Amino acid sequence: MTISLHAPDAPSAVPDPRASDAASDAASRGHEAAALRRAARLEALLGDPQDPANPHGIAALCAADARGEPPGGTERLLTGTGLAAEFVPAEFGGNLTRADLLAKVLRPVFRRDLALGFGFGITSLFATAAVWATGSARQREWTADLLLGGGRASIVHHELAHANAILRDELVATAQPGGGYTLDGRKDVIMNASRAGAYVVYARTAPERGPRSHSVLLLDPDALPADGVRKLSRVPTPGMRGALFSGLEFTHCPVPGDALVGRPGEGVSLALRTFQVNRCLIPGVAIAAADTVLRSAVRAASTGRTAPVARRWHRPLAGVFADILACDSMATVALRSLSLLPERAHILAAAVKYVVPDLLREDLEELATVLGAHGYEHGSAQYGSLDKLVRDLPVAGLGHAGTAACHAVIVPQLRTLAERSWFLAEEPPPELFRSGAALPVLDYRLLGIASGEDLLSASLVGSAARLAGTRGVGGHLALLSDLAEGFVNELRALRAECAALPAQRAALMDPAVVILSDRYALVQAAAAVLGIWEGQDGGDAFLADPAWAVLALSRLAGRLGIVVPEVPDSVSQQVLEELVRRYRAGRSCDLDGIELSQ
Prior knowledge:
alpha+beta; four-stranded mixed beta sheet; globular; 598 residues; four-stranded antiparallel beta sheet
């Protein structure tokens, strides 16, 4: 039986910008309610991930990964639910209204398997972003029909510096006198190339380097001549072994002129603008996969015990839980910013893209100590998620190449940020941090490129100022105030160092300058934690209490070498108690704390 998630909860039309604020707010809240219903329904359909007999559980997914093949039954289930509608904007008949809501809907999939989420279709969203941003009406309609019909799109990246297998090599499109292009070149590693119904190609159209060197082409594989394109053999990968990576080779392949997406030479700017969504979404869904590993660690530390969790596991378990909440804070703020402040989200998107995966990788190492021998139960329904996520997470983030691309966004902006933004900019709207706040619809056409503006530093300064009056109160609130002030001082030090940077761009990628970028990105994470904590309405007593924020900030401060007051055991104990409570109640370990299948 086919169970559609798309039809019953299809969102209403995108709000008319001329509509009243009240009507727009109501529409936004309707979108959120519908997305949460779809997420809950998907969570129920996929079943208990730790049930060995569940065909969509961790054991079955690990077995498919070990065989090096996609989990066909689970992919068919997801296709039957109409999940691909989540990747199509509502104005073109899909469910995509906001990036933060998309992350909520996709987390049930990623909670079970990162590779499943990528292989099934999130890469279709990454591929088609350029079409939604600047494609013609015909291109958008054709692409929407493809995805809504269960088809996939593959992205054929241009080559980047520090390239790995996915980002190495590129295709060249040569303009023809009579119109159109001929396409040549070879890419060996493309996700879903063998089963895609569309290729979105970032092809070189000018020989010189520069911002106008590439263009975007939307290709229908069925319309290409057989002698112009050849599908290459599948490529084995160390991570995401069940995802289908293979290649394409083009030889004097004719491409019609109407395949061009946007204007000639617009490929680089389109990538810079639209990849912001990818950079925010990947951390937002990877958190769900880490949540599963954390729950397995709690299971290992508590199964068979009548007494509380052993004291030696308090620090790693509570600490990782705090890290996941910090990661979710940063990802959530970044995802919301794409709708609320699309012209200013670029730098934060780059920061979250590498901060969150780096923190999660460190957390997996801590959890491995808790799991002990259980961590070697590869393929186990209860404990197999650790080994798999350790291998899959670097692939999801594109490894060093992905981090270098994010540095390339942030580093050139540091001097401008120091001179024009830090301690000068106004705070962002409070809706950026408030759960349930009405937000505009995500519009790819409005996404901007880094312009020396910073979303969160002003928020950090404001949070610290508001907390300053609590220092005499004592307790956890006073600790939070001290931590906030420590991060403000770090930002002040960064301003002095970055204002002295050389103006020559060639000197900016010096390793010492890249370290400044890393420090700044962690300050952004701290600002997000404080913003999310301040934005609580009291509906969740744990999140409204400062304990989790104190522990999260203390761990971020430790990574920066900021001297902070010693965090008392009562903080870790309070966070650990919430973690165990959520584990026993079957609730997620993120900001939402949703009910899970078990």
